[in-house]
Amino acid sequence: MIPVTRVDLGGNEARYLQECIETSWISSEGPFVRRFESDMASLTGQKHAIAVANGSVALDLALSILDLRPGDEVIMPDFTIISCASAVVRAGCVPVFVDAEPGTWNMDTTRIEDVITARTRAIMVVHIYGLPTAMDKVREIADKYDLLIIEDAAEAHGQSFAGTPCGGFGDVSTFSFYANKHVSCGEGGMVLTRSDIFAERAVRMRNLGFDPQRRFFHDSLGWNYRMTNLQAAVGCAQFERLDATIARKRQIGIMYREQLTGLPLRFAPDHWNESDNHYWVVGAVLDDSLGMDALALATKLRERGVDTRPFFWPMSEQPVLAPYISGREYEHPVAAGIARRGLYFPAGTAISNDEVQAACTVIRNCLG
Ligand SMILES: *Cc1c(COP(=O)(O)O)cnc(C)c1O
Q1: Is 320 helix (H, G, I), strand (E, B) or coil?
Q2: CA of 128, closest atom in ligand 1
Q3: pLDDT < 70: residue spans in the chain
Q4: Is 309 exposed, middle or buried (0-12, 13-18, 19+ CB in 10 A)?
Q5: Which of 186, 216, 240 is the last residue of a domain?
Q6: Residue 230 and residue 276 share a domain
Q7: Which domain holds residue 286?
Q8: Are residues 360 and 348 part of one domain?
């Protein structure tokens, strides 16, 4: 079976882990945590970086440090992962979903203004699958209506929009370092901000709400969201090779595009605005004309040794979120369509060219 993700850990990962063990710095107090935080702050141009246990809790923490009140509305993409919506709901806020844009699968920024109300307080942006969201438009709307920007850059390490790094746009921004991300440490996340106040809250909330002056005294209820030095050691080694990872992911993405040309499926553009696609995943959407949805193709591919994953299922179609949404009716035909007809192919950094070739041959046979 050719797996969807197999990570290349061939840099300094083992050496840095060894260092953790030899020095016995294995908890969140170790030096790699601070180094990884400063790496991510400099990558994004943010002032503060707060390492946490994973990308989902990074979103929870991000929502908890803003001055949001119950009932405030947060505009966000319909086509994303549940972590984004659950963080909004847990903050007591109301998620308001905007449909995807058919070309890039990112939030359709031309639809944001349609859903703004007097309760709208923030726009959550998620850069999807390898291309950035149109941040010029988001910035313009946020300025016009005085809204906060929450930026989930979990799929966009090293990506940029019009010269500004992804993760650098948010009043608060987040990353994930899950095994399949461009910088990985197995499980890990980061919260970034320019605000001293937000950062101080995040540091406290990450660590059980400890009062910095008075240990074991608490004036807020936090969580233990700390990242270990072991995780950060792998993250630092991965960070050193981010440029090489992006270059390799682009090679893999371009190989798939070239070898699958002429088939009834559509990729997001290789280049859009001023950004190259970084292929966090190599996804494709099957043509409507094809009498097969993504699930049927995935089953055929798996029988022939090629693993795939389905696209995100839209937030507006999640029964668990139904009690928390605004109740106003919006149509999301693009997200609904790509959810049913989209899937992504094996493209981890450790995949060989031969494996990509083999996967393409199987895909071609199943669709031919
Ligand atoms: C991966 C991902 C997350 C969640 O990160 P975890 O580290 O898996 O919790 C959040 N948002 C987006 C857009 C992601 O791709």
Answers
A1: helix
A2: 13
A3: none
A4: middle
A5: 240
A6: no
A7: 242-366
A8: yes
Q: The pTM is what?
A: 0.97
153 CA distance to ligand 1 middle (Å): 9
- Closest Cα to residue 41, out of 140, 146, 167? 167
According to DSSP, residue 323 is labeled G
CATH number at residue 190: 3.40.640.10
CA distance 364 to 284: 13
Alpha helices in 79-195 (DSSP H): 82-90, 135-145
Number of folded domains in the chain? 2
Cα(367)–Cα(51) distance, integer angstroms: 44
Residue 3 domain-assigned (yes or no): no
Q: What is the pLDDT of residue 249?
A: 98
What is the reported pLDDT for 177?
98
**147 and 204 both lie in a single domain:** yes
In this structure, the answer to whether residues 235 and 262 fall within a common structural domain is no
What is the spatial distance between Cα 116 and Cα 110, in angstroms, rounded to a whole number? 12
Burial of 104 (0-12, 13-18, 19+ CB in 10 A): buried
Expressed in angstroms and rounded, the spacing between residue 152 Cα and the centre of ligand 1 is 8
Q: Which atom of ligand 1 is nearest to the CA of 127?
A: 13
Q: How far is the CA of 302 from the centre of ligand 1 (A)?
A: 25
- Give the pLDDT of residue 219: 82
pLDDT of residue 167: 98
**Residue 227 to residues 33, 54, 315: CA-CA distances in angstroms?**
7, 8, 28
